[in-house]
User: Fold this.
Amino acid sequence: MTKQALHMFDNFPHSILHFLGSTTASLCHARQAHAHILKTGLSNHSNITTKLLSLYANNHCFAEASLVLDSVSDPNVFTFSTLIHAFSKLSRFGDALRVFTRMIAHGLMPDGHVFPSVFKACAGLRALEAGQQVHSFASVSGFALDSLVQSSLVHMYMKCDRLRDAHKLFDKITQRDVVIWSALIACYSRRGCIDEAKQLFHEMRDMGVEPNLVSWNGMIAGFNHSGSYTEAVFMFQKMHLEGFQPDGSSISSVLPAIGDLEDLVLGIQIHGYVIKQGFDSDKCVVTALIDMYGKCACRLEMSQVFYEINQMDIGACNALITGLSRNGHVNDALEVFRKFKGQGMELNVISWTSMIASCSQNGKDMEALELFREMQIEGVKPNSVTIPCLLPACGNIAALMHGKAAHCFSLRRGFSNDVYVGSALIDMYANCGKIQLSRLCFEKMPTRNLVCWNAIMGGYAMHGKAKETMEIFNLMQSNGQKPDFISFTCVLSACSQNGLTEEGWYYFNSMSQEHGMKARIEHYACMVTLLGRVGKLEEAYSMIKSMPFEPDACVWGALLSSCRVHSNVTLGEVAARELFKLEPRNPGNYILLSNIYASEGKWIEVDKVRDMMKGMGLRKNPGCSWIELKNKVHMLLAGDKSHPQIEQIIEKLDKLNMEMKKSGYCPKTNFVLQDVEEQDKEQILCGHSEKLAVVFGLLNTSPGSPLRVIKNLRICGDCHAVIKFISSFEGREISVRDTNRFHHFKDGVCSCGDYW
Assistant:
């Protein structure tokens, strides 16, 4: 701005007004004009300050805007409303409310233009209490009857999850346009209130207000969000039949629902429509297509859609990784993820979280921990979804220190009170053998949902603490939380761990008699396990035969395991035959039957089963144990001679065996189910992975330190006896988690009471 121009403003304030309001006014010019205004004392000219505030706010120069506001000795409503509106428009909701509070402090009453911006800010912050206070202001001043204010109030209450209040206000609006109708209908749809949403939709038409594309899309997206997938697809089809042309938003909203319904035929039809209408360049539509094909297990089509994209998009990349993982191709997903990362693509928190979840859910726990470390090195901040995806990996391999680090991270970031983070923490600590810490996390949760209650019950059940499990089950109900099928699975599992048949029958029968729930197949599996473990094998078999549906592999597997415990060949053969039909490629079933034969000395039958396995190309899953030492998880395999400390481990184990024999212990060679000499059997027992892991822990930790071991198979009776001795002889607390439960060894005694 030239000196001549500035001189002209000295006599003509309206010239400054005109200039600040023009489209050619730059930020630089505004600052020069601001300096001139301060120099000439025009800062109290309300119109000039309002224009200047608007210009600064629209250019995100909030420091300068604050200076302008501070320089006004006698501000009016327009001075504040300009800044409130700008902050609200730019989603700086906290700043909008602060300026509003300052306005009230000056004794100024808001007008009909201020209230909508303030209610928008309250909605954006989900600040219900503040919104209700502002609502009172509007009512006192009479502006609550203004249609624009009423509409903004309805939106605020909907955003704050007060649908009834929103509907009451909606009913008071005399002139309701399609926007407010659509917003309320969409809100009911997102809640899964199908009947209410449809009724409102019909009422809108009866009132002469015709739905637009936004109305239809709101219902489709809402129904999909609430899990009402069939309704979402129905509304999409109805919209098309009534002559409305679906847009990109319609398609990207309905495709996830189609995927969840696994309706591949309809998905392919919509894909054709996408190509025909030219929506294949819409990033959201392409991402939704990849997601849909992934849910329908169509890997080829999913990949084709992805690789036909002209410009790579992070949303599509995330959908491809998730689709591959969902269909069990976790190695391919990891490879694709690494490829994207290597190409310099800016992977976001969703990308990293999806990959961590994929590894956690598919047995790649070490990779999940490494990805979490890499994620932070890359500067991507984990969120409240990342932590619950990571924690199962920590629990799976008892990586307690990594789990504690994730817990500390969630505390620092302020989302440790999130119910899903809290539930995952309860589960992680329980899986790591720290049930007391699980209970502490549970007690500290400010709010609890059913997932939290089930997590702590599942933890107690895993640790064989039936009394505590039943106490939590009762406490949950006294707190007004109704149990679901998982709750009953937890309490029945706890009963089966402790042989509590009477209590087990009580809870099983109470499902239908007291809670109106039909027992699921997992509940029958728990009862078969319970009956079988206490030796009531015929009763367990009768229960299977009387089931209202076909028993699955879990049920027959429970019976077969019990037959192994009690060496019941006849029923073991019955269960095995059924399992061979259901799971012909599961080597565990063949091994169990082979072990039953071996325990009875039926070596010919053992050879037949093993020949059958060999003919099918099946191999026994090797025993594997994990132990965490100094923040690192170590894996030991049964009979593994390649471990760097194997000589020290065997030497230490031999010394312990000598001490055990001195105290009267004899190796339980009946747990070696091979037709070999007794001496060879003793050597085989020495190579069991849980023993190797415990001794490895003894060698690498200070005396008296507790040890935590995880095993991928059931602990054998000999290892159980050996670890009991070690806990007493070495003065150690040793926790071993097998596929069945936790065993806490201390002073020569196990928490299971030798019942497992």
